[in-house]
Specification:
The protein has about 270 residues and is α/β, with parallel strands linked by helices. It is built from 9 helices and 11 strands. The strands form 3 sheets. A 6-stranded parallel β-sheet has the order 6-5-4-7-8-9, sandwiched between helices. Strands 1-2-3 form a 3-stranded antiparallel β-sheet. Strands 10-11 form a two-stranded parallel ribbon. β5 (about 100-105), α3 (about 110-115) and β6 (about 120-125) form a beta-alpha-beta unit. The chain is globular. The structure holds NADP nicotinamide-adenine-dinucleotide phosphate. NADP nicotinamide-adenine-dinucleotide phosphate binds near residues 107, 108 and 170.
């Protein structure tokens, strides 16, 4: 959520009425008015478009921290992005380009042009077995895989990693059983001397008190956005009262990047 501060409580310092701020709400973000803790407000420059800024709060922080705080990518690394055409996937592609990575992305065929524009080699996950394709193209294996799908993408993602490679999964396990399966794979992958690592990333760490790395990374991402080094892909914007249509578009499978709900004040 991005908005302007309307009022502050007694004794609140560090934020004033009129400041532009963001909040990572998890739920309750479809709103015109939000009551939120002052110590969890994220400073947002007024020089950037609010719709673009809203993508930084969730999608870009997931992409940035998966890439830089978990996989610790370096220039020239070979990586796979699962769900490359989505909100987080498009953020990963832009940040990966900035970091000088050699990228492969899974996406539906109709979205491959966007991947090519971002210097990402597209693989149509509906028509091709990406494990076979990547074993042909990169016989030495990849340095990192970024996955938001979970399920069998985890094992198949591990299968395309080379020695020293890391799989970062930020997907929500669909069931408790799937969660235990993931934890089992994580323990065995990380304990076996196979030179590969499996890490789980979640913004839930923010709510467990590890807020400093988030605040540092949001500041860096807003700096990159303000400097024009990243340009979030906005598929469409809807007035907040048309949230149902926005959700229908999301469910259509035609979206590339982000769908943003906008209030009258920020239209
Ligand atoms: N851990 C966290 O803190 C956190 C935070 C935010 C989101 N997430 C999770 O991250 C995932 C991605 O989020 P998002 O906002 O980027 O989603 P999104 O914008 O809806 O994009 C999802 C992408 O997944 C692709 N896809 C759909 N079915 C697929 C399949 N069977 N195999 C491979 N790709 C498939 C689609 O590609 P095509 O359209 O090209 O087919 C689409 O581009 C979600 O599972 C979400 O729950 C986690």
């Amino acid at each position: 959520v991005i908005g302007d501060v309307d009022a502050v409580g007694d004794g609140v310092t560090g934020v004033q009425v009129g400041d532009r701020v963001g909040a990572l709400t998890v739920t309750g973000g479809y709103t015109e008015v939000l009551y939120w803790r002052a110590d969890r407000l994220i400073p947002v420059p007024t020089t950037v478009d609010p719709a673009a800024a809203s993508t930084i709060i969730l999608n870009y922080i997931v992409a940035y921290q998966s890439m830089h705080r978990n996989a610790h990518v370096k220039q020239g690394d070979k990586v796979l992005i699962v769900g490359a055409s989505g909100g987080i996937g498009t953020a990963l592609m832009q940040l990966g380009k900035l970091a000088g990575l050699k990228m492969y992305g899974l996406a539906s065929e109709s979205k491959h042009d966007l991947l090519r524009q971002m210097d990402v080699t597209p693989i149509d996950y509906r028509m091709q077995d990406f494990v076979e394709v990547l074993r042909d193209l990169e016989p030495g294996g990849l340095d990192a895989v970024f996955d938001g799908m979970s399920g069998d993408y985890i094992q198949r993602g591990l299968d395309v990693l080379g020695r020293g490679g890391t799989l970062v999964s930020f997907g929500e396990p669909p069931s408790l059983r799937a969660l235990f399966g993931m934890l089992g794979t994580m323990i065995t992958t990380n304990l076996l001397p196979n030179g590969r690592a499996f890490k789980f990333y979640g913004t839930s760490f923010y709510f467990l008190g590890r807020r400093r790395p988030f605040n540092e990374d949001w500041a860096e991402l807003f700096r990159l956005l303000d400097a024009g080094a990243i340009a979030p892909v906005i598929d469409s914007k809807y007035p907040i009262l048309e949230a149902a249509q926005a959700n229908a578009r999301l469910e259509s499978g035609r979206v590339i990047g982000n769908v943003v709900l906008v209030t009258r004040e920020l239209m």
